[in-house]
Amino acid sequence: MAEQSSVGATGVLSPQEVAGREAFEELIAEDSRVEPRDWMPADYRKSLTRQMSQHAHSEIIGMQPEANWITRAPSLKRKSILMAKVQDEAGHGLYLYSATETLGTSRDELTDQLIYGSAKYSSIFNYPARSWADMGAIGWLVDGAAIVNQVPLCRASYAPYGRAMVRICKEESFHQRQGWEILYELSHGSPAQKQMAQDAVDRFYAPALMMFGPPDADSPNSQQSMAWNIKRFSNDELRQRFVGMIVEQAEALGLTLPDPELRFDEESGQWIHQDLDWDEFMRVIKGGGPCNAQRMARRRDAHEDGAWVREAAAAYARDRADEMDEVA
Ligand code: FAQ
Fold first, then answer.
1. Which GO terms fall under molecular function for this chain's record (predicted)?
2. What is the full DSSP assignment across 10-54?
3. What backbone torsions phi and psi does residue 34 show, to the nearest 5 degrees?
């Protein structure tokens, strides 16, 4: 009973739809999981498709800043680690596209929405990776923010999303440690290397904090998403948790967070960070960031270059299906 529409042409719910809605509301109230076969409200399906596909697009576009550094990694070991990480991100994109497909939109349609439409992907990947130290900052700050945001998603009410997130979070944890390790080595190297690490942290700190999304007061999706147990914490709560986590880590790295207003507030027991430039954030998510055009052009070219692979795979699948029919 996976019906999308909940209201018929007359505006009256059918008895099956009433039963489906009741079952859905019960699942949410008892914090259970919704499976693809279950009835779900059209808005729940739509909002999940939006969030999960944006998440998948982010993983795929997110391969670009790091892939650009594979050929320039400073050693064979660093090169193989970076290649493994970038491949992991491709895997994450694929789990997430597959999980999103269970909601009824095909991967081809989702891809078209990114390449030829206006689907979003994470703002962070529209910033350039200028030096090797940026591989460290991306691992430490970007994967670190992704973990804080995504661990609660392992408990998302939509079961295929939660299941995909469990494996993704394990891999992100390895990614964060490799970023930390790159920065640690640089910050304990020559003065020029330490400066390179500091410069990377200076450039990625604020964009990493913006990954959590707009402030709660300007987040149109959060409230409903939390009521449906998709998101478990608000954007500001997770951003706050992340800042609390990286303050001590930055000290251990011997690096400074570029935030003149950063201070520990005894009363709330929290680290207070500077106001972020939300105009910049809006510009970036609307396509006006430093690398939006380049990222999308690269993604479009890769998609078009890969058309023959998709055609060959489809032809192979058709042949296999014909063979199976003949055997049967
Ligand atoms: N960038 O109402 P809210 C990674 C949009 S994966 C771009 O607060 P929501 C791994 C939002 O979509 C990183 N757009 O939205 C990696 C909405 O627009 P819409 C990706 C953003 O959904 C590491 C509008 O603003 N992670 O890093 C952003 O409740 C290294 C209003 O916002 C995920 O996708 C943004 N930062 O909360 C890979 C995690 N923030 O759709 C490679 C899953 C907000 O109404 C290398 N997603 N927007 O047109 C989420 O947790 C949520 O969707 C949020 C946004 C928290 C991102």
1. phenylacetyl-CoA 1,2-epoxidase activity
2. TS---HHHHHHHHHHHHHHHTT--B-TTS---HHHHHHHHHHHHH
3. -95, 125
Does the CA dihedral 28-144-277-129 come out positive or negative?
Answer: negative
Alpha-helical runs (H) found in 30-158: 42-61, 63-67, 76-101, 107-115, 133-137, 144-150
Query: Is 126 within 8 Å of 295 (Cβ atoms)?
Result: yes
Which parts of 149-201 are beta strand (E)?
none
Distance of CA 213 from the midpoint of ligand 1 (Å): 6
* CB of 88 shorter than 6 A to ligand 1: no
The single-letter code of the amino acid at 107 is R
> H or E segment at 271?
strand 270-272
Minimum CA distance residue for ligand 1 atom 30: 143
Return the residue whose CA atom lies nearest to atom 43 of ligand 1. 55
Quick one: fold of 24-294? Ferritin (1.20.1260)
Q: Which of 44, 47, 51, 148 to mutate to test the pocket of ligand 1 (most atoms within 8 A of CB)?
A: 51
**Closest C-alpha residue for ligand 1 atom 41:** 50
Q: Domain ranges for the chain, please list them.
A: 24-294
Predicted pLDDT of residue 10: 64
Nearest-angstrom CA–CA distance, 164 and 151: 11
CB 260 less than 6 A from any atom of ligand 1: no
